[in-house]
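Take our chain:
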Amino acid sequence: MFTNYLIFTASLTTLALIWRAILLDHPTFAEKVRIFPIVGGSLYCGFCAPLWCTLIAVCFYNPVALFASPIASLITGWLTIGAGVLFLRNLIAVLMEANGVLTDMHRSSHKD
């Protein structure tokens, strides 16, 4: 069960990071996503998009289905996997940004 959780969370995190990269690299596409009716703001938001993606994925496969009630299992799975996805996504995003800062510091030290 724990292995399934980790694999599922890593897969959804990868999708969230790819979505983030697409929005950052293509500003015209990001603007079209943002102004899309009803769901545009959620798809553009770095917090909301992974959570909604997690809800859709958990509807198809829930590795932490612990309760007999389908609704309780869905909510528990969504919250558990959503927290893991957001944690990993933000951790990787911070590491990527820190890598850029350190690379810039290293390159600028060679200019002197």
